Amino acid sequence: MKHRRKKKIRMRGSHTHGWGSKKRHRGAGSRGGRGMAGSGKRAAQKKPTIIKLYGNEYLGKLGFILPEKAKKRIIKAINIQDLPNKEEINLMDFGYNKLLGKGKVIKKYKITTKYCSKKAKEKVEKAGGQIIIKK
Fold it and tell me: Which of 28, 65, 68, 129 is geometrically suited to a Cys-Cys bond with 109, CB 3.0 to 4.6 A?
């Protein structure tokens, strides 16, 4: 038996997939779709009815959507071993917002930060320092 590619693969990029009119083979008879399908740009005859039933707010776009990057919490971290040689440190002044626990604690640090790992907190407190978490 000879193997053939499926028709839908061959029809990729075709406007109608070989069925002629755009509205044929939608699975909704001759209605042009189900529900509010087709109530976009090209359905000028439907617009008065839509506005009467749903108001002007139904058509068009409302508000804005933040990009994915803005939604995420951006964390810039620094390890204990990379801390400057001061006793009082505000990590936000250096452009960091999280303290991580890699390295040895050499002083009694008083560190102000937004986020902190468990290991870092344990190490600083064991050395006699303290971590202040500011929101």
Answer: 129
